[in-house]
Amino acid sequence: MTRFARPAHRLGALLAGVFLIAACGRNDDPQLTALEVDQPDGWDDELALNIPVDINPDPNILEIELEAKLAEIEFREGFRTPAWTYGGTVPGPFIRAKVGETIIVHFRNSLPEPTSIHWHGMRVPNEMDGVPGVTQDPVPSGGEFRYEFVARDAGTFWYHPHINSAAQVGWGMYGPIVVEDPDDPPEFGDDLVLVLSDIGIAEGSGDFLPVDTGGLFGDLFGREGTVLLVNGKVRPTLKVRAGKQQRWRIINTARARYYTIGVPGHTLVRLGGDNGLAARSAELPNFVLVPGERADIVFTPSDEPGETTMFRWVPTERGFGSVFNRPREDMMAIRTVDDPPVIPSAIPVELREIEPIDIEGAVERTLDMTIDLSNNDVVMGFNGIPHWSFEPIEARIGETHVWTLTNETIFAHPFHLHGYFFQVLDDTRIPEWKDTIDIPVESAVRIAIRFDDRPGAWMYHCHILDHAEAGMMGQLHVLP
Ligand code: C2O
Ligand code: CU
Asked: What residue ranges define each of the domains in the chain, with the CATH number in brackets?
C-alpha cells in the first residue's frame, strides 16, 4: 500500500527519546499515560451529533420521538439546501443504548411522501424491520408508526428509510446507532462516531441535483454526492492529543460511495465492524468501507504537537471509472494540540470468542449479481431477476445456509442481508459477524448464515442504493 507515503510511528521514536531522557536521570516531565489524561477541550465539538431526549425514566428503556421532516441546512457555505432529515439535522439524532436496553421510537412522517425506518444491522423482530410492503405499510405523509425492539447486540448500526431510498438517503436521511457493551476496556479510548456521507448539490448553489442525474449511467454507476460530509459537516476539525487514543465508530451512509479509511502517517487498529468486536484486533494501514458497512477502530494520534493532518477521501476501486482521473478530497482535519504527548495504551489482541458456524449439511445457494443492459435500460438483479419479479429464497428456522455471492459485472456490489448476521467463509479473514460485505468485480464470496429465530420476510440487496432500486434486491422468507 503506497497510498500514504509519510513515515509512520513517529510517536515510537518520540517515546524512545523520552525513555532515553529518563535513563539519563532527567525527570522533569514524567510521562503520563493515555488513561491519565482527558481528550483536549472541545475535541469533538465540530462533530457534535444531535442527542435525542429520552422521555422514559426507566434506565432500561430508551424512548424517543423522531420526526422525518424537511429542513434548510447550509452544507455549502452561503447556500441553503432543503434537506430531508430525521429531526431537522443531518445526520439524524444519535441513538445510543446499552446492550439489552429496549428502544422505543415514536416516529412521525412530516415529509411530502411516504417513508419508513429500517434499523440497519439490528436484529429486530420482523415487523419492526421497516420495509414498506413487506414488513409494514409505508408511513404516509402525516402518518405515525411506533417502533419497539431490544438492542440485543453491542455494535455500531444506523437507520435509514427503505422506500425511494436512493433519493431519501441521498437527501440526508440517516442516523447513527451505537449499542455499548459496558465491559469494553477503557484502553479502546473515548468514543467518537464518524458518519461518512455525501450529498449531491449543484455547482454554485444549494439545490439538489436532479434525481435522475447522469441518466442510465447514474443508475449503473451509482450516484455519488458532490459534497463530502463527516457528521453532516464539510471539512470539520477534530482535536487530538498525541498518544491519547480515540475509538472511532465509522459508518458509511453514502448512497453509493466507497471509502478507503486511512490517515497519513498513522496505523489504525481495527477492533471490529458491523456487529461489534471481531475475534482479534488488527493493525492496518488502511481498509475499504463500503456503503452500509461500519468499522470500529482505535485511532492513536502520532503527529507532533501543533501539526495538522488531513483525513481524505481517496479514489477507491469499485469498478468501471471509479478511480480514473479522480482527485483525493479533504474530509476532516485532525489537529494535534500543543499538550505534550502521552504514552498510548496497549490494545488487547484477543477480543471476543467467535464460534465458526458449522456448515456441515448446510443448504447451498448461489446468488449471482447481474446487470442487464438490453432494451436501452439498466436492470439489475440476483440470478438475472430484479426485485419486482423476485422468487423468495426460503429457509427454515434451525437451518444453516451457505450462500455463494458471485459478481461477474463491471462494478463491485456491497451485499447486505437484513435480520441475520453472517460469517464470511474465508480463512484469511479475522472471524467476525457481519451484515454487509463487498463483492468486488469478478469475485465470489461465500457466507454462512444460521437462521436461529425470528421468522419472517427479510430483504437482501446491494447497498449501492441506485443498484437496489434498479432491481438488485430480493427476499428471504424464513419459515417457522
Ligand atoms: Cu441499510 Cu435494506 O438496508
Ligand atoms: Cu450494486
From this structure: 46-180 (2.60.40.420), 186-336 (2.60.40.420), 363-479 (2.60.40.420)
